[in-house]
Inverse folding.
């Protein structure tokens, strides 16, 4: 069975500080991976997707970057946090056989 | 420009009633239309999905009605239960991007 793990579970960071969020998927070879962001009480917005190691496509510009250093790992980062970066960050993978997007448990980020 | 429009923003029904949530889209290249629900503090989870080759998809108490000509689709929750209370998001996919609607907060009163 596939499992997706996100870290950390929650972060409280200062404006202007750097950020790195991680996501690891186990039990799935060469998954398509995705990053989503959800403002408190808001909808989900896709940030990035990656279909293979080393390749990342940006969907929206939010002063964030993403990398895929390993087949099972997806990293979201920025060098300088803004207040507007606060929210719920979700990593997801797609099961192509079922056409289903599965989300990780997410990371709650508060930027103060 | 919002790719997927969702209404109503909030909906309250009595237990046993049918809840109807609506979505519309503009981009005719969308090829997959899922509905997700999300409970407070949790991640979204897939409820049911449909492809444009079908106009109806049922799974237990949940039914999607899809109108390709009008670019509209809706989720019907029959015999609503208090445990169905959650926020529901419709979505539409274009290649590797999934666009979500703004969400409907459903409350089922006992």
């Amino acid at each position: 069975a596939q499992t997706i793990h996100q870290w950390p579970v929650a972060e409280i960071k200062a404006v202007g500080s750097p950020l790195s969020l991680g996501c690891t998927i186990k039990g799935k070879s060469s998954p398509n991976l995705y990053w989503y962001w959800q403002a408190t009480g808001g909808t989900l917005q896709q940030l990035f997707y990656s279909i293979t190691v080393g390749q990342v496509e940006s969907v929206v510009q939010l002063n964030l970057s993403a990398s895929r250093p390993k087949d099972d790992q997806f990293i979201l980062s920025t060098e300088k946090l803004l207040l507007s970066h606060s929210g719920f960050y979700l990593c997801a993978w797609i099961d192509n056989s079922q056409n289903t997007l599965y989300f990780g448990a997410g990371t709650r980020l508060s930027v103060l | 420009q919002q790719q997927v429009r969702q209404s109503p923003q909030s909906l309250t029904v009595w237990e046993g009633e049918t809840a109807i949530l609506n979505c519309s889209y503009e981009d005719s290249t969308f090829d997959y239309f899922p509905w997700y629900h999300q409970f407070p503090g949790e991640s979204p989870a897939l409820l049911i999905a449909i492809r444009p080759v079908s106009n109806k998809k049922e799974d237990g108490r949940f039914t999607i009605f899809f109108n390709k000509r009008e670019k509209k689709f809706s989720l019907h929750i029959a015999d609503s239960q208090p445990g169905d209370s959650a926020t529901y998001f419709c979505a539409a996919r274009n290649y590797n991007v999934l666009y979500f609607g703004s969400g409907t907060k459903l409350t089922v009163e006992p």
About this structure: The domain at 4-109 of chain B is CATH 2.60.40.10 (Immunoglobulin-like). The CA atoms of residues 67 and 73 of chain B lie 6 Å apart.
